[in-house]
Amino acid sequence: MAPVKISHVVSFSSQDPRYPVQNLLNPDNPRRPWLSCPQDKSGQLKVELQLERAVPIGYIDVGNCGCAFLQIDVGRSSWPPDRAFVTLLPATILMSLTDSKQGKNHSRVRMFKDGKEGKSRKDGGGLYEKQSCSTKEGCECY
Length: 142
Fold this sequence. Notes:
By secondary structure, this protein is mainly beta. Helix content is 4%, strand content 39%. It is built from one helix and nine strands, in the order ββββββαβββ. The protein has one helix at residues 97-102; strands at residues 6-12, 34-35, 44-51, 59-65, 69-75, 86-93, 107-113, 128-134, 140-141. The strands form three sheets. A five-stranded antiparallel sheet has the order 1-3-8-5-6, with no helix packed on it. One of its GO terms (cellular component) is nucleus. It comes from Piliocolobus tephrosceles (Ugandan red Colobus). InterPro entries: Galactose-bd-like_sf (IPR008979), Xrcc1_N (IPR002706).
């Protein structure tokens, strides 16, 4: 199945004005990261993205640039507002503590395939995708 485009950003927690969250929408330049605001010391980035259409999610490739953990939750726009997102990928380590402290393996792509990590979403769930990244220093995603 071909990748599904992200149609727009629904919400986000923080962004660096030079590296805005809108960079996630540009597939032509995947090396332009989304960075947290330099003044944001929370160590977490959250984004809610809307996909162009509801599709079964069989795999997700995530570009990482300094985040230690990642969690991906999904939902549908047709769900009532009080219905919680469903965890597709539970909190997953993207960088070891040693790598984080030494600045190694800071930028890489992780591929998550259905059945290996997290739950399958064969019911077409996933019109909305919410990603949460965290680290001690600051987060960057691309």
